[in-house]
Write a structure and sequence with these properties.
Blueprint lengths: L3 E2 L3 E5 L2 H9 L1 H7 L11 H16 L9 E6 L4 E8 L8 E8 L8 H14 L6 E7 L3 H9 L3 E5 L3 E6 L1
Parallel strand pairs: 5-6
Antiparallel strand pairs: 1-2, 2-3, 3-4, 4-5, 6-8, 7-8
Amino acid sequence: MVELHTERLRIIPLNAENLKNLIEDPKQLAQKFSLMSSDSFLDTELQQAMKIRLAKLLDDQDHYIWYTNWLIVSKSHNCTVGGIMLKGLPNANGEVIIGYYTLPDYQRNGFMTETIYAMKNWLLSQPDVKSVVADTEKNNIASHKVLEKAGAVLYNETAELYYWRFI
């Protein structure tokens, strides 16, 4: 199993069973990975995003790491601090799309910048990956700063979203 490590974090791709536990029973998932249980859970919007990830993962379980949520675990706290999602295999242009979240209790600690930096480096070392793309809502200043710190470049926008790229 692929697992990424940074100085402070473990980044673990969730198989179908573990992703289902994240959605339905996060305390059981914490127990399975021997993590401290948290009172921070996914909000309704994130649960819906995870259900979409799970449906896509179940369609292509051989490539689950490209469709799932990767759990971000703080080594020092031994608990989940957030997640980063891959939204599929590289497209025809070699782009991989990511999405991410930090649980409220762990925001403003640099965990997501560290995660994105590690993930984009790993992704860009994979065959067929030429760039990593993220989109953010225009009013999500914290997410803009995270992407900028990790080296992303703003390359497009719509009325609601900014589009960022790592190459």
